[in-house]
Design brief:
The complex is a heterodimer of chains A (166) and B (416). The longest helix of chain A is centred in the C-terminal third of the chain and has 12 residues, at 153-164. Chain A is 34% helix and 19% strand. Chain A has a seven-stranded mixed beta sheet. Chain A is of the alpha/beta class and 166 residues long. Chain B has two domains: 3-260, Aconitase, domain 3; 268-415, Aconitase, domain 3 (2-Layer Sandwich), CATH 3.30.499.10. Helix content of chain B is 30%, strand content 17%. Chain B is globular. The chains are: A alpha/beta (166), B alpha/beta (416). At the A-B interface, α5 and α8 of A face α2, α3 and α5 of B. The complex binds iron/sulfur cluster (SF4). Residues 64, 99-101, 120, 122, 296-297, 357, 360-361, 378-379 of chain B line the site of iron/sulfur cluster.
């Protein structure tokens, strides 16, 4: 069960906002985390606590393919991102590195910054503890839940390679 | 099947495909750069395999912060160089390189009918050749380098048909900006965009690369053209291996068909801070600027530089404005020199650089201070994209960029 305080953002939060390109001359997660959301929310890094949850409207993570974006979010301590929709490459990247993403327009419409959310990844149930409301996220296709339950694409591929070996 | 489906089917074990299917695809090219390859290499090492499956299909191009802008980026570029030597993959050293999405088709590595994946969102550029090309992340690339395969979800196809004869200053950049302005930055989310119609038949290859390049700015997974006579002429002298031409599928298999008449279209400009915030150039013609950038994987090809030079020739860059011109590759640089274009820019007071992504992503070679404004031929104008989060970027075609450099404000090329 994931539980944390909500940071709420609008639509089209792009990967340059999540981690500006000027910091991409390194790829260590802890270094990237220091600048997470910097260009749209200077306070984020100072205020975020381990387990907190990002909530945003549509097309979260649009723009570049930088895996540094979900890495920075995860390394900043965020446990999950809930949005109405995600940009395609960001979605892949987050699944691949084990940052849970949940698509749930109802949660987004009924949640404010500072609310406490509880999320069960097994059932996709999201409860807004502050408001006493319960929502259900769109389930992952089977193929993706296999990657998630393996612990990310690297572990999934390791199994696949091992299965092939004579 | 649609063009995208035909190409994906030919690279999987499936005979026929429909949107939404999850498939394993065997790509022809696997690309990464000096920002994304370091993570891909680290993840590759975790897989427990020593060698990439097929070094001839793997390309690494250090282009974003190269020539190395600082010690940290030098360390990243070094990782690529060492991995490339160790694995025998295709690699372009500084001095032979260009921006990846200008280089690969120029060198005959990206071809019609290919599936091309790259750890860079603008990998969609190669769709101009009649290929299925899409960007993904570093971990995706790591597993593809090891196994020669990648998972994909088959996208629906959105067809865009362009009618009419474009005006003098209207090119591929204007058509794609206009389209993104109409459908929004998530208007083609997860979809393969297909560009067709008589205006497309008449569009140059360089103009087509510009359009495919910005499919991602509408959320698209790919931006595709049918390979026609122009395409075949372009690839015939470059191709290093056989390739396949697929036709477009029937309209009935497209998820949507959108038609535009572009005969009255003005040059288009995307105002801050989204590529969809598009207006005709005349609506912005009072906006004062501090910098112009002409280059990038969107508009750093020979035709782009030629067009900008034709506008700027005989004029000077406005006082207190800097104009930075960056050819997309060494070949573009050489061709521009041979045509006298480099001299035109320098005599007009422009800075002319070796190929690099540089200012396009706020990396180096032209970063904006707080409060500064740029007109740029690049593809993104997000907050902070080219420097300070308090700076502004306007996206335009090379002719508008050159005219704006001369007048020190956003300008229609006719005004110069
Ligand atoms: S030129 Fe700009 S958009 Fe193109 S690959 Fe380089 S940074 Fe990315």
């Amino acid at each position: 069960m994931l539980k944390g305080k909500v940071f709420k953002y609008g639509s089209n939060v792009d990967t340059d906002a999540i981690i500006p390109a000027r910091y991409l001359n390194v790829s260590e997660p802890s270094e990237l985390a220091k600048h997470c959301m910097e260009d749209i929310d200077l306070e984020f890094v100072r205020k975020v606590n381990h387990g907190d949850i990002l909530v945003a409207t549509t097309n979260f993570g649009c723009g570049s393919s930088r895996e540094h974006a979900p890495i920075a979010i995860k390394a900043a301590g965020v446990s999950a991102v809930v949005a109405k929709s995600f940009a395609r490459i960001f979605f892949r990247n987050a699944i691949n590195i084990g940052l849970p993403l949940l698509e749930s327009p109802e949660t987004v419409d009924n949640t404010d910054a500072g609310d406490i959310l509880e999320i069960s990844l097994e059932t996709g149930i999201i409860s807004n503890v502050t408001k006493g409301k319960i929502f259900k996220a769109k389930p992952y296709p089977k193929f993706m839940s296999d990657i998630i339950s393996s612990g990310g694409l690297v572990e999934y591929t390791k199994k696949k390679i091992a299965g092939r070996a004579p | 099947m649609t063009l995208a489906e035909k190409i994906l089917a030919a690279h999987s074990d499936k005979k026929s495909l429909s949107p939404g299917d999850f498939i394993n695809v065997r790509p022809d090219l696997i690309l990464s750069n000096d920002i994304t390859a370091p993570i891909a290499i680290k993840e590759f090492r975790k897989l427990g395999v020593k060698k990439v499956l097929d070094p001839g299909k793997i390309v690494m191009v250090p282009d974003h912060f190269v020539p190395n802008k600082d010690i940290a980026s030098a360390e990243q570029a070094k990782m690529l160089r060492e991995f490339a030597q160790e694995q025998g993959i295709i690699y372009f050293e500084c001095g032979q390189m260009g921006i990846e999405h200008v280089l690969l088709h120029e060198q005959g590595l990206a071809l019609p009918g290919d599936v091309i994946i790259g750890a860079d969102s603008h990998t969609c550029t190669y769709g101009a050749l009649g290929a299925f090309a899409t960007g993904m992340g570093s971990t995706d690339i790591a597993t593809a380098m090891a196994t020669g395969e990648i998972w994909m979800k088959v996208p629906p196809t959105m067809r865009f048909v362009y009618h009419g004869k474009p005006g003098k200053w209207v090119g591929g950049k204007d058509l794609i900006l206009y389209t993104i302005g109409r459908i929004g930055v998530d208007g083609a989310l997860y979809a393969a965009m297909e560009f067709t119609g008589e205006a497309i038949d008449n569009l140059s290859m360089d103009g087509r690369f510009t359009m495919s390049n910005m499919a991602i700015e509408a959320g698209g997974k790919a931006g595709m053209f049918r390979a026609d006579g122009k395409t075949l002429e372009y690839v015939s002298t470059r191709a290093k291996r056989p390739y396949t031409v697929h036709e477009l599928g029937p309209e009935s298999e497209c998820a949507s068909v959108t038609e535009y008449d572009i005969s009255k279209l003005e040059p288009q400009v995307a105002a801050p801070h989204l590529p969809s915030n598009v207006k005709p150039v005349s609506a912005l013609s009072g906006v004062k600027i501090d910098q112009v950038v002409i280059g990038s994987c969107t508009n750093g090809r020979l035709e782009d530089l030629r067009l900008a030079a034709s506008v700027i020739k005989g004029h000077k860059v406005a006082p207190y404005v800097r104009c930075i011109v960056i050819p997309g590759s060494q070949q573009v640089y050489l061709d521009a020199m041979a045509e006298g274009i480099v001299e035109t820019f320098i005599r007009s007071g422009c800075a002319f650089s070796t190929p690099t992504c540089g200012p396009c992503l706020g990396g180096h070679m032209g970063i904006l201070a707080a409060g500064e404004r740029a007109v740029s031929t690049t593809n993104r104008n997000f907050v902070g994209r080219m420097g300070s989060p308090k700076s502004e970027v306007y996206l335009a075609n090379p002719a508008v960029a050159a005219a704006s450099a001369v007048l020190g404000r956003i300008a229609n090329p006719d005004e110069v």
